[in-house]
Specification:
By secondary structure, the protein is mainly beta. The chain contains 3 helices and 13 strands, in the order βαββββαβββαβββββ.
Length: about 180
């Protein structure tokens, strides 16, 4: 499922007075439908994305897909906003609730995701990786393979030694294609 780039407004991370981030549970594969409909109602939203390789009809394609499938985030002030309208928005299953009210996301969780994201909402986990680190490739023809980060450059490219068939095979990728190995 491809999700088209949607710029994250610079003001998305600035919360005023009683505003908080809340999690929205979307209908299956409808996060990218729910987000613009929430924005049309003047809700600030954030849909964290990651690069993912999908296989279809013997073809591989790298797409931006939700980091948390079926979830996106919305800014609400429960005293000011008509938050019940979120539940009837196209693509939304429901707000995450606790005791009859939307449950706020813990402080700094969404803010740290926003700080690690591009303007399209793609989360870059790159800061946790240093040369010599074990990494997992998440996009491209070798998605899922483990490797060792050899080096990185300022243009956003990384060189990785992929562990395959008992040997280390060098390859060069965009830095968004690798994440720290768990």
């Amino acid at each position: 499922m491809a999700v088209g780039p949607r710029p994250v407004p610079p003001s998305a991370s600035v919360l005023h007075e009683a505003e908080r981030w809340y999690a929205v549970y979307a209908q299956p594969h409808r996060e990218s439908i729910a987000q613009p409909h929430l924005r049309e109602q003047n809700f600030r939203t954030f849909l964290p994305l990651q690069s993912r390789t999908v296989h279809h009809a013997r073809k591989r394609q790298t797409v931006l897909a939700p980091l948390f499938p079926r979830y996106l985030f919305v800014v609400l002030d429960l005293n000011r906003d008509r938050w019940r309208a979120v539940n009837s928005t196209r693509g939304v299953a429901s707000l995450i609730m606790r005791e009859g009210l939307p449950a706020p996301v813990r402080s700094a969780v969404v803010e740290s995701l926003l700080a690690s994201s591009t303007s399209e909402g793609e989360i870059l986990f790159f800061s946790e990786i240093a040369p010599g680190s074990r990494v997992r490739l998440v996009a491209g023809p070798f998605a899922g393979q483990l490797g060792i980060l050899r080096d990185l450059d300022s243009s956003g490219r990384v060189r990785v030694l992929i562990e395959m068939m008992g040997a280390h095979i060098p390859t060069e990728l965009h830095r968004r294609c690798v994440v720290p190995a768990a």
